[in-house]
Amino acid sequence: MICLLAPPADEKYETARIKQLRQGNYEVLLPETTEQLSDMIRSLTVKPIRLPEIFLNGFLRLRLPLLEEHTNVLKSLLEHDYPYLNQRYQELNQISCPTLILWGREDQLFTVDGAHYFLKLIPKSEAIIFDDCGHFMAIDKPLEVAESIVTFLNHHCNCQ
C-alpha cells in the first residue's frame, strides 16, 4: 500500500508559490529569517499557528547550517528532475497496490486538481481531499489525516 501526501504534480497544477521557487526564490521553502519562516508556515497552512519567537529562532538555528546544502539539493531537483516528472509519472500506471492520495483543498504548492491528476495515473487509487486544509496537512488536520491513513490500511490489509 502507498500513501501520497500532496506530491509534486504536473506543471499545470502549480501555484504561484512553486513558480516563485522555480525562478530561484528558494526562501519560499527554505526560509532564512523568522519573517520568511512565519510566511512559509502561514502560506502552507489554513489553521492559524502562533509559534513563539524562541521556537522560530531555534528552528532556524538548527536549519541554517544546512541551508546551502538544502538549497543545492532543491536547485538540483528543480533543474534536473522536475522537468521530467511528467514522463516519470507515466510509469505510475504500473502500480498494482492500493494507493491513497491525500490533499488539502487550499494547498498553496499544487492545486487540489493535482490529486485528480494522480487518481487518473494510478490504478486502484483513491483520494481524500480535506477542506480548510493547506499543504501541511498534519498541522491543519492531524486527526483526520491519521484516521484516513489508518482506515485505508485497515480496509486494504489482510492481517488482523
TrEMBL record:
InterPro entries: AB_hydrolase_1, AB_hydrolase_fold, Meta-cleavage_hydrolase
Pfam families, per the entry: Abhydrolase_1 (PF00561)
Domain of life of the native organism: Eukaryota
Domain AB hydrolase-1 intervals: 70-142
Name of the protein described by the UniProt record: AB hydrolase-1 domain-containing protein
Species assigned in the record: Rotaria socialis
